[in-house]
Amino acid sequence: MKLRYTGRARADLEAIFTYLDARAPAAAQSVKTLIERRIALLADYPFIAPATDVSGIYELTIVRYPYKVYYEVSGDEVWIVHIRDARRRPWAEEGT
Asked: Is-contact 29 36, C-beta < 8 A?
């Protein structure tokens, strides 16, 4: 399957990476690599994560770190729709 990112998801990822680089430069690369590897798994295992209450949306937890990846599967594509810090208020899906 192909991995695709919505504009929002790309902006989310960039914001997370910028935050990590500013707060903990020495550890940032390992966290960024883990996030990227977990997302890459979705190409081979698109249903690895549980479904959310929103129809068609799945929630992938980044183990050891407070990040969650929300995505949907459409044909032969996995669309990453939102990536968030789980320490913040819960995500209210807004039409992805």
From this structure: no
Amino acid letter, residue 12? D
CB neighbours (10 Å) of residue 66? Answer: 11
Which residues, other chains included, contact 8 with Cβ-Cβ below 8 Å and sequence gap of 6+? Answer: 81, 82, 96
* DSSP code at position 51: B
| Secondary element (H or E) of residue 27 | helix 25-44
Q: What pTM was estimated for this model as a whole?
A: 0.87
Tens digits of per-residue pLDDT, 23-82? 988 889 999 999 999 999 999 999 999 999 999 999 999 988 999 999 999 999 999 999
Which letter, b or e, does each residue of 71-87 get, where b requires 16 or more Cβ atoms within 10 Å of its Cβ?
bbeeeeebbbbbbbeee
